[in-house]
C-alpha cells in the first residue's frame, strides 16, 4: 500500500516535455501555479484546463497516474468544497433548508477552489513525473546558483536531496518489512491509546534507524570510492543548456499566463483562502 | 495441527498497471511434524506463499485452513495464529531493537500476554534451542557477529512456542560454516521438538540434505511437490526454470550416461559415494 | 608489474568501552603480504570477520594501513597526494546492491564516477554506453534502479566502476546478497570484463564455486593469509579449508570422499567433467 504513493515519482518515458530543461519545467510550473491564484473566471479556467490538458497529452504520462496523485488530497478537497459551498454567500440563493444556504456564488467558488487545488497538485506532480529527481535537483542547483556567492552550500544540499529521493522508496519498503516481522512476533500497532501506540512504534523505529545509518555509511563509502569530492572540478553528464525548444516552452507558458491574467482582468480579482 | 491451502490466489495491486499474479491456484497441505523445503528463485512467489501461512497477507481468493478451521472466517483470532505459526523473515537480525539479547527475545512472549518471569523462561529456552551461549544474554544484540545475531532473531520467534516454524532464507549472507551451523541447529530443533519446519531456500544443496519434502515454486505456481529424490529426477525441468539440482545429481547422471551401473537418484555426497563405490565392486 | 602490492600490511582500530574510552586495539589485518599481477584474476576467501573486507578496502584507499604499505599501480596509498589516483586505478564494488547506487536513473548512476573525475560530457556518454553494454544492461539505461533485480543492480554498480576506466576492479562480496541467478549474472559480467578489457580482478567471496577460474586464491583467517595457491591446490586441501570455516565445492567434496574410500582419484578436482573423466579412467 505504501508503494501506491505516486506523487514525487518519475515516470520514465520519452516525450517532448521530458526532454525539456528542468529549469524550464520548474519555472513554468511556478508560473502555472501563480496563474491559478491570480484569477477566478470561467474563461480563465477553460484556458488553464486546455493548457494543462495539452501538457499532459504531450508528456505521455497516462491520465490515471495523475488522477492517482490526487488521492492524498481527497479529504482536503471535500472539506474545501463543503466549506465554500455553505459559507460563501452571494448571487441567487439556489437552495435553503434549516441553517444551510447554497448560493450561486457558493457553487461557483467551491467548483473553482476544487479545480484550483486539483490543478495545483496535477501541475506539480506533472513536473516530477516528467523530470528525473536528479534533473530536478540539477535544475534547482543551477537556479539557486547565485546563492553560492552568499556561501550557501547549494551543491551539497542538492546532492543530499537527490540521495534522499532515491532512498525514500527503499526505506518505505524496509518499514513495511520490519513492520511485518514485528507483527509476526505478535506486535500490535492498532489498539491502545496514543502513548501505547507511540510506544509500539519503538520496535519499528529502532531497526529502521539502525538500517538507515548503515545505509548512509555504506553509501558514503561507495561515493568516496567513486572519487566523489564535492562539486569542485565536477563535470556533468547532462549539463543544462537551453535550446530552441526550451525557449519555445518559456514563450508558450508566458503567453498562457498573460492570457489568463488578461482574462482575469475582466472579472473582479478575488483571492480566496477557503 | 496442519495447514491446508485450497485454491489460493494472490494478485498484487489488482486493477492497476502494476497488477501481478503472485500466486496462482495453490493447493497444498503441510502436516504435523513435517520438514518441508520451499524452493524457487526470486519472484517465484515463495515469499508471498509463506506470508499467507500466518495471515500476514490475505489471499485474493481461495481458503487457508489451520487445524481444519478457515483463518478467513469471521472472528478468527489472527494473533493466536501468528503465535502458532512462527515466521522468521530473511535477514531477521534487521528487526532486533532491544538493549540486550534476552529482552529482545522476550518481545514475542510479552506480546502474547505472558508475565515477566514466564517470558524470560521461554526466552531462555528458545536461546538454548538455537545454541546461543548464555554469557552473551545481557549483551546488546547489535554488537554480536552476523551468525549470532541471526540466532537471536530466530530465538525471538521460537520464544513464542510456535507449532510451525517457517524460515525464509535463514542462511542468506552467512559463510559456509555459519550456514551449516544454522541448518544443523534447525534440523536438531525439528528432531527434538517435533515442530513442523518450513525452510525457504534457493540452494538445492542445502535443502536436499535436510528436508523430507520439497515444494518447487515457479511463476506463482506449484511446479513440483514431492520427496527430494523425486523432485531432482526432474532436473531438466528445474533447469528450464533457472533452478538446478545438487551438483552430485548431475555427476550421477553423467556417470550413468557413460555406462556406469549407478542409480542417478543420489542427492547427497554420502549417497553418491555409496552408489559409486557399489558400482566398482 | 604488480597492480597491487602489499608489504607487512597491518590495520588496527581502537576498542572502546561504553564511555568511549580506548581499552585496547583490534588487529583486523596482521602482517599481510600480497601481490596481484597486472591482468590477473585473484580471489580472496575467508569467513565473516576474517579480515577479507578490511583488506579489500585498503586496495582503493578507503582504509589507510596503520602499519606496512600498500601500493596500487605503484602508488603508496598512505600519501594523501595519491588518493584520487589510487581510487581511479582501483574501482570498488560493494556487497549491498542498494547502498552503492547513487543515481535515480541507471545511466545517471553510471555517469556519476566519470563526472567526479572531470571527464568531458561527450566522453561520459561514450563511457556510460560502453560500460552498460559490457555488463549487458543497455536496455535498462533509462530505468529506475529500484525496479531492478539484485543481480541487475550489481551489474549497474560494476558498470559505474568500469566507466571510470580503472586498471583494476575490487569486488567485495558482490554476490553475498544475491540469489543463484543473480550470482551467475554478476560472474558472467566479470568474466566478460576480463576478456574484453583485460582488467585486473580481485574477488572477495565466501562462495567456493566462484573462485574456480581464479589465477590464484588467498585464504584469510583472523587477519592473516593462511593459504595461498591455485584453486586446484587450495581445494586439494579440503580439510584445512574447513578448519578455516570454509567449504569446498560439492564435486570436490565427493571426489575427496571417494579418495578416502580408496579410489585413486587425483586431488583438487574442481569440475564435474573432471570427476566423471577420472572415474571413467578407473574402470
From TrEMBL, chain A:
Gene Ontology molecular functions: transmembrane transporter activity
CDD domains named among the record's database cross-references: EcfT
Membrane topology listed for this record: Multi-pass membrane protein
Compartment annotation: Cell membrane
Keyword field contains Plastid: no
Membrane-traversing stretches: 24-57, 69-88, 109-130, 150-172, 248-273
Protein origin, superkingdom: Bacteria
InterPro entries: ABC/ECF_trnsptr_transmembrane, ECF_transporter_component, EcfT
A Pfam family this chain is assigned to: CbiQ
GO cellular component: plasma membrane
Keywords associated with the record: Cell membrane, Membrane, Transmembrane, Transmembrane helix, Transport
Subunit structure: Forms a stable energy-coupling factor (ECF) transporter complex composed of 2 membrane-embedded substrate-binding proteins (S component), 2 ATP-binding proteins (A component) and 2 transmembrane proteins (T component).
Similarity comment text for this entry: Belongs to the energy-coupling factor EcfT family.
Main function: Transmembrane (T) component of an energy-coupling factor (ECF) ABC-transporter complex. Unlike classic ABC transporters this ECF transporter provides the energy necessary to transport a number of different substrates.
Protein name as catalogued: Energy-coupling factor transporter transmembrane protein EcfT
TrEMBL record, chain B:
Keywords linked to the UniProt accession: ATP-binding, Cell membrane, Membrane, Nucleotide-binding, Translocase, Transport
Keyword ATP-binding appears in the UniProt entry: yes
EC number: 7.-.-.-
Start and end residues of each ABC transporter domain: 3-244
Primary localization class, coarse: membrane
Major enzyme class: translocase
GO cellular component labels: ATP-binding cassette (ABC) transporter complex
SMART domains to which the protein is assigned, alphabetical: AAA (SM00382)
GO molecular function, one term: ATP hydrolysis activity
Places the protein is found: Cell membrane
Membrane topology recorded in Swiss-Prot or TrEMBL: Peripheral membrane protein
A Pfam family reported for this protein in Swiss-Prot or TrEMBL: ABC_tran
Known role: ATP-binding (A) component of a common energy-coupling factor (ECF) ABC-transporter complex.
The family this protein is said to belong to: Belongs to the ABC transporter superfamily. Energy-coupling factor EcfA family.
NCBIfam families membership: ECF_ATPase_2, PRK13637.1
Quaternary assembly: Forms a stable energy-coupling factor (ECF) transporter complex composed of 2 membrane-embedded substrate-binding proteins (S component), 2 ATP-binding proteins (A component) and 2 transmembrane proteins (T component).
Protein name (Swiss-Prot/TrEMBL): Energy-coupling factor transporter ATP-binding protein EcfA2
Organism classification: Bacteria, Bacillati, Bacillota, Clostridia, Lachnospirales
TrEMBL record, chain C:
Residue span, ABC transporter domain: 4-247
A GO term from the CC aspect: ATP-binding cassette (ABC) transporter complex
Major localization listed first in the record, in broad terms: membrane
Compartment(s): Cell membrane
Keywords: ATP-binding, Cell membrane, Membrane, Nucleotide-binding, Translocase, Transport
Domain of life: Bacteria
Any matching Pfam family: ABC_tran
Membrane topology field: Peripheral membrane protein
Statement: the UniProt record of this protein carries the keyword Translocase: yes
A single GO molecular function term of this UniProt record: ATP hydrolysis activity
Similarity remark: Belongs to the ABC transporter superfamily.
PANTHER family tied to this protein: ENERGY-COUPLING FACTOR TRANSPORTER ATP-BINDING PROTEIN ECFA1 (PTHR43553:SF24), HEAVY METAL TRANSPORTER (PTHR43553)
Name listed for the protein in its UniProt record: ABC transporter domain-containing protein
Lineage, uppermost ranks: Bacteria, Bacillati, Bacillota, Clostridia, Lachnospirales
